[in-house]
Amino acid sequence: xxxxxxxxxxxxxxxxxxxxxxxxxxxxxxxxxxxxxxxxxxxxxxxxxxxxxxxxxxxxxxxxxxxxxxxxxxxxxxxxxxxxxxxxxx
Length: 90
Hints:
Elements: H1 14-28, E1 33-38, E2 41-46, E3 52-60, E4 63-71, E5 86-89
Antiparallel strand pairs: 1-2, 2-5, 3-4
């Protein structure tokens, strides 16, 4: 079970999706703090330099699904000096 889960499902234009992904990319290439607005919530994530990334494309009949997934641990290791946190505001 997740400690925190914020989800958004919506019908968007291709341009709106591109803008969301571009904003995420800009935030990821910055200082490591990413703020995402999902529905009525804003989620702030501190992302480490190394993440696990998975891309998946599934075609089922006349429906295509594209998933992009990023994962990382929030646990500190002895070599890590940063705190990795997730905060959500509504």
